[in-house]
Amino acid sequence: MLPPSFTPALTDILFNQAREFVGVYDVALGWFVQVNPAGVQLLGYPSQQTLLAAPALPARPLATIDWPRLQELARQQGHHEAEAEINRLQGAPFWARIELTAFTSEQKPYLLVRLTEQSRLHQAERELAQSVRRFEAVVANATIGIIMCNRAGEIVSANRTSHQLFGYPEDELLGQPIEVLVPHAVAHRHEQLRHSFNAQPSVRAMGAHRGDLLARRKDGSEFPTEISLSYFYLDEELYVVSYIVDITFKKNAEQELIAQRQYVERLNAELEQKVADRTHALLNTLEQLEQRTDELTRALAAEQELGELKSRFVSMASHEFRTPLTAVLTSATLIEKYPNTDQQDKRLKHLQRIRGSVRHLNDILEEFLSVGRIEEGKIEAKPVRLLLDALLAETIQDVQGLLKAGQTVQTELHCAHPIWLDTSLLRKILVNLLSNAIKYSGENSVVTVRAACARQQLTLTVQDQGVGISQDDQEHLFERFFRARNVTNLPGTGLGLYIVASYLQLLGGTIALHSELHVGTTVTLTIPYEDHSAD
Question: Pfam families attached here (predicted)?
Answer without folding.
Answer: HATPase_c, HisKA, PAS_9
